[in-house]
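Weekly puzzle thread! Below is a chain. First person to post its structure in token form gets bragging rights.
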Amino acid sequence: MHIVRFVSPLTDAPAVGVDDGERVVELSGVTTVAELLRLPVEGLRERVAGADGPEHPSGSVRRLAPVDGQMEVWAAGVTYRRSREARVLESERAADVYELVYDAERPELFFKSVAWKVSGDGGRIAVRSDSEIDVPEPELGLVLNAAGEIAGYTVVDDVSSRTIEGVNPLYLPQAKIYLGACAVGPAIRPVWEVSDPYALDITLSIARAGETVWDGKASTSQLNRRLDDLAGYLYRADVFPDGAVLATGTCLVPDLPFTLQDGDTVTIGIGEVGILTTGVVKGLEPMRGIGGVL
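Winning reply:
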């Protein structure tokens, strides 16, 4: 079962429902994911179990990114050995910074996106026009409620400019935060339906002109951090009244000098959670219109 945000065929407006693989049942009286994330986990479980609204065939609805309201997307960095190695390799002047973060008690956490800028399954991600090497970063996303509890899991693409971050770690916001740099979806798998989040396969495939140009596979078993610890640090000195999504770092990084190109298709799969597919565009202009951006 997945919690989905989608365009209702009845109202042509965003709706929230439960998808069992064959049908989507709308949650009557619930219009946003944020409303659900104000509930404790047990309250959320009871609410979705009681879905009794209009029903639609699963394949007939257009899914939206499962983030809305005042939800924010954050991310953790250098949580896998492969990520540490990639950051050290690409960094021109501060390789030791990434070595220190990997072993430190305090994780690296950074802001990624507000809800309205997030792309969903079937949407678009972008590479910056002022960057030469840009890559997708497939990550398990923790869906956190207002109290900081892990309510579920989703797939996150933390799109990044390796060129910009490699020059100086202080450029990380420009490498990580821009329109088209974050995709989330296709849905939320409730926490009670995933028996072991440390044993999930992660796959990444990049297609170009109909052919696969890069693919790889890894597992959350390689994670160097505890998921509840990452969530705890995020909520340690901040509040998220509508909940948040916290991407937990990547373990699949294409070797240099591979870069995404305009027209590529990125497919990220996480076992038991879902498959997120997006197209790639280059620059700001093709992204205009996302979330009402002019």
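Puzzle host: Confirmed. Bonus trivia for everyone else. The CA atoms of residues 36 and 47 lie 8 Å apart.
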